[in-house]
Write a structure and sequence with these properties.
Helix content: under 10%
Structural class: mainly beta
Radius of gyration: 35 Å
Order of helices and strands: EEEEEEEEEEEE
């Protein structure tokens, strides 16, 4: 075009079949004016997909040519050949992208077993993101988890069967011991010093005592 100094006869135009604004580097024409369906950019890695182009997944890379079918700005982690993989393990659901470590919660207390885990996008039923359960035995340990016995410790992983907020003082291995000497009775928890009241006047003999979770049989106060 000898009448327009801004148009060069050496311009290379790339076919943009999918209409995403990025052209196929393998299909080009050198003309003075842009042919229909052609663009000056030749960086598309998949010109059959309008959701695949450089910068499609800026949360993974602002420049790499990735596929983002669900529009969450994360790239498909298993794209077609020639497309850069991203980190989106579910590219049809914008609410799910990166894989996470999930932990089995066999006892259903909301706290997971750190020894039973899956690195997965969508977990199976019975898995949680928490990994702090010290006893995840199915069906028997739902009363054992961090914070189960706040009267002893608001954070420690303890067992509290009777629900009095005191932890069992003789729990299974791996569980933090609390101060509840009878974890089957919510009225009995920490051991108390009892004194023999032989004359039953309500005052005990300081020389005859015993520690017990509940009042011993006989005359003790």
């Amino acid at each position: 075009n000898d009448l327009d100094a801004t148009v060069s006869p050496e311009s290379v135009w790339y076919a943009d079949t999918d209409g995403d604004g990025f052209g196929d580097p393998a299909t080009s024409q050198t003309t003075c004016n842009a042919p229909g369906g052609h663009v000056p950019d030749g960086t598309d890695c998949d010109d059959t997909s309008s959701v695949t182009f450089p910068g499609a997944a800026p949360n993974d890379s602002a420049a790499a040519c990735m596929k983002d079918a669900d529009g969450d700005d994360w790239g498909d982690d298993t794209p077609p050949a020639g497309v850069t993989p991203g980190s989106d393990c579910n590219d049809v659901n914008a609410q799910i992208h990166q894989r996470a470590m999930w932990f089995e919660d066999a006892d259903g207390d909301g706290f997971g077993n750190p020894q039973a885990n899956l690195l997965i996008c969508t977990p199976p039923e019975g898995y949680v993101l928490d990994d702090t359960d010290c006893d995840d035995s199915a069906g028997s340990a739902a009363d054992t988890f961090p914070g189960a016995a706040p009267n002893d410790d608001a954070a420690a992983c303890m067992k509290d069967v009777d629900g009095d907020d005191y932890g069992d003082d003789t729990p299974p291995a791996g569980v933090t011991a609390g101060t509840d000497c009878d974890d089957t009775d919510p009225e009995a928890n920490a051991e108390t010093m009892w004194y023999r009241d032989q004359d039953q006047d309500g005052f005990g003999d300081p020389g005859e005592s015993q520690l017990s979770c509940s009042q011993p049989a006989g005359n003790w106060v």
